[in-house]
Amino acid sequence: MAEETTEEEEPKKKKPVLLIIIAVNVLLGGGAAAFFFLRSAPPPPPAGEHGEHGEEAHAEPEHDKPSREARPTGPVVQFEPIIVNLNEPEGTRFLKIALAVQLANEKLTTPVDEAKPIIRDHFIRELSDLNYRQTAGNKNKLAIKRRLVKRFNEALGTEGAVEIHITEFIVQ
């Protein structure tokens, strides 16, 4: 009979120990998460720098501020959306893209309007060579924009495009 009472007491002793271990792990995990979260927070701005409405201003480093001189200022020419099949073995994916081209100067507006079918043909040929993986992500979109600027300038016969802006981009 003495053996029966010791068997019943052991499971009762294990439950509080298990609860204590779980509570310690939760506290340690929460403390570690709080440490890393608070440690990665940006430092507050120096005292005395306040915004327009009394709130503290967050100063941007000079090299991160966009330069007004660096922005293209030429006219922008819109193109109708282009839909192409992507270069996939199954042939079931397509890309729909709408573009606006920033020109170097006002004098190029008329030649670009006259050459739009030729430029569009260059764009379609360039875009149909892409596969699905080449359309995903920001890096790939920037690469597409560079390739389209090159194709635009080839079709026009001059360095007329300063920037290409993607106004619509759908891959399905």
Topology (elements, then pairings):
Layout (H helix, E strand, L loop, with lengths): L1 H38 L36 E3 L3 E4 L8 E10 L5 H20 L9 H19 L4 E11 L1
Antiparallel strand pairs: 1-3, 2-3, 3-4
What does this structure look like?
The chain has 172 residues and is of the alpha+beta class. The protein folds into two domains: 1-39; 76-171, Tetrahydropterin Synthase, Chain A (2-Layer Sandwich), CATH 3.30.479. Helices cover 45% and strands 16% of the residues. The chain contains three helices and four strands. It has helices at 2-39, 109-128, 138-156; strands at 76-78, 82-85, 94-103, 161-171. Strands 1, 2, 3 and 4 form a four-stranded antiparallel beta sheet that branches. A hairpin with an 8-residue loop joins β2 and β3 (94-103). α2 packs across α3 (138-156). It starts with a helix and ends with a strand. The relative contact order is 0.12.
**CATH topology title of the largest domain:** Tetrahydropterin Synthase, Chain A
- Give the percentage of residues in beta strands: 15-25%
How many structural domains? Answer: 2
Global structural class: alpha+beta
**Number of DSSP E strands:** 4
Gyration radius (Cα, Å) is 31 Å
CATH architecture title of the largest domain: 2-Layer Sandwich
